[in-house]
Input
Amino acid sequence: MAALDGLLITGQSGFLAGTMVASNLGWRPVETLKVGDKVLTFDHAMQTVADIQRETVLLPHGLPATLHPVRLPRGVCHNRRDLWLMPDQGLLVECEAALDVLGDPFAVVPVRLLCGYRGIDAGRPGERVEITTLAFHQDEVIYVEGGLLAHCPAPRQVLDETDPLQPALYERLTGAAARFLVNCLIDDDDDDALGCNPADLPGLPIRPPRPGRPIAANPFG
Output
């Protein structure tokens, strides 16, 4: 955390209130989830939420652009409205450039490094935002706002960076490797790089409800 102009800035990853998450109860606002709920993951089907962190983040005028939340415009990945994420929230990217660089078509990239791709940019949704961060017993990638794939790293021991019991599931790219990958995405204008069509998700409504509409009943009941 850091202080700026007397105001407290905390946390650079997580989901703003209202972000819809695919769960065993259908699409749910992230702020309504609790420890013990089950969320649909990319690799391991339904997984139990092990920990949740909630915080209020202040966004004063003059905040450096690198600390601004990032806006994903409507339609970037089947999202029906603009989606805001904290700048270091990782997104799972699938593309040939990742395969060329890593030997794996999947990589996690902080959303702030995706600015410039399909209209993604940093901004300021308000003076303060409510942030929810989810954690599981291992690294997971979850579905948010349609088919977008968001990375939720497992908690790790602070003094043990290797933590062999908690291996990282995906490589998180930064620096030159991330810039190369994002430039390739921009050049290719690949509209499937950040997720999937929500129609392909098993047992869920075809897309999250529009804001203000009732949330669907449990599709598994």
Notes: Residues 1-11, 211-221 have pLDDT under 50 and may be disordered. The helical segments are 96-102, 175-188. Residues 175-188 form the longest helix (14 residues). The chain is about 10% helix and 30% strand.
